[in-house]
Specification:
The chain has 73 residues and is an alpha+beta fold. It contains 2 helices and 4 strands.
Length: 73
């Protein structure tokens, strides 16, 4: 199954993102960032790629400045 992860340099921003996605009614959970990526704080947010547009709006609206990028896994 393919899913998206949002990677941040800050665990605080990761958890804020997960909280905001959950408030929007989207299933989003913390996962370990794949070590091969060698980026971020070690914890990422996993969600269905269908909601990438919503995720982009949340990152913009909540000024999650440590955002690194989205990845399909």
């Amino acid at each position: 199954m393919i899913f998206c992860i949002a990677v941040f340099r800050s665990r605080t921003n990761t958890m804020e993102f997960i909280d905001q996605m959950t408030r929007a009614g989207i299933i989003c959970r913390p996962v370990n960032t794949p070590t091969a990526m060698k980026v971020g704080c070690g914890v990422s947010a996993r969600f269905s790629c269908v909601y990438k547009g919503v995720a982009e709006k949340i990152i913009k609206n909540y000024s999650l400045g440590t955002f690194v990028g989205f990845y399909r896994v």
